[in-house]
Amino acid sequence: MELGISTFTCLKFAVYVDNDYHLDSLGLVQLPLKKPKPKQIASNIRVVIDLSFDSLMTDMEITSVSSQLTRCYAANRSTSRPVNLFFTSYGQRIQNRFDTKIQSHINWKDVIFDTKSYLERFDKNDLVYLTADATDVIDELNENKVYIIGGIVDKNRHKNLCYDKAKEENIATAQLPIENCIKLTTRKVLAINHVFEILVRWLECKDWQKAFLEVIPQRKFNDEGKKKRRIRKNAGTIDLKDDIPDTVQDGLAKEYEPSEQM
């Protein structure tokens, strides 16, 4: 049976459950309904992604960081409680990546790209560097504080890097209350975007455990998930793009490279 343009269009956008089989048999995919954007109530929370580690990363790691920054921005645009987002120490290599591959970032809203350090923008007493190596644990987010996330992917080459940097600068450090809420079978180091998404999710629900469970990849919770991922990777079938959204709405950049800081 030949399908005209109008027939193809009708099938592609069909919403009846009875049509699912026919769409599948024709090799067509039913388009998902676009989620309505939630009503946003801006919070006064300030979150900084510290990009001062530009020189310590490989080109592939720079690519991964840029992907995670894209994910952070997308999360902030889609949450009901957006934060004030800053990318500080915006270095040359990250800039080049954005200028050549994510050119639509010039249209991004509610985010500040700053070549200066967070020390030049904020009061040192307000800064809290979030790192898994810290001893203090945060119970809630304080609107009087500025929370810093280390913008680095380094495959564990630089131990305690963010913690040591914060101590040298004499600023406070803290970690998320992961151990108080959930049990992980992997190390507590999370991708940049996962830390950010946990923060904005907590602002929505005020429940750390719920935020962790909704954001942290399931493979971090059980050995079976790790085993399956290892088998798939060895077989060459693993999709390293699982943590990057297929599309980003509202004119955001598409950046598909995988997150590697897991």
UniProtKB/TrEMBL annotation:
One of its GO terms (cellular component) is nucleus. It catalyses: guanosine(9) in tRNA + S-adenosyl-L-methionine = N(1)-methylguanosine(9) in tRNA + S-adenosyl-L-homocysteine + H(+). Keywords: Methyltransferase, S-adenosyl-L-methionine, Transferase. Residues 33-223 form the SAM-dependent MTase TRM10-type domain. GO terms for biological process: tRNA N1-guanine methylation. GO terms for molecular function: tRNA (guanosine(9)-N1)-methyltransferase activity; tRNA binding. Gene3D superfamilies: 3.40.1280.30. Its EC number is 2.1.1.221. This is tRNA (guanine(9)-N1)-methyltransferase. It comes from Cetraspora pellucida. The lineage of its organism: Eukaryota, Fungi, Fungi incertae sedis, Mucoromycota, Glomeromycotina.
